[in-house]
Design brief:
Number of strands: 3
Number of helices: 1
Low-confidence stretches: none
Shape: elongated
Order of helices and strands: EHEE
């Protein structure tokens, strides 16, 4: 394994179906412009309630990517 330098960015994804989908939404969108993403860490989970039920999930993740 070579030595890497990582940079992190913070993203918040949202979904009406669940936490995992919210994470995948954030990562897929970042993948359009960010190269070399290597790992993520969930830092916050929250949601929106409508009529006593979860209507929307919001998940904040830190994403690490290697610098070229």
């Amino acid at each position: 394994m070579s030595n890497h330098v990582y940079k992190t960015l913070e993203l918040t994804g949202s979904s009406t179906t669940g936490i995992e989908d919210a994470v995948n939404t954030a990562l897929a969108k970042a993948h359009e412009t960010v190269r070399n993403m290597q790992w993520f860490q969930v830092t916050e989970t929250r949601g929106h309630i409508h009529d006593g039920k979860v209507a929307h999930w919001q998940v904040t993740v830190k994403v690490g990517f290697t610098l070229e």
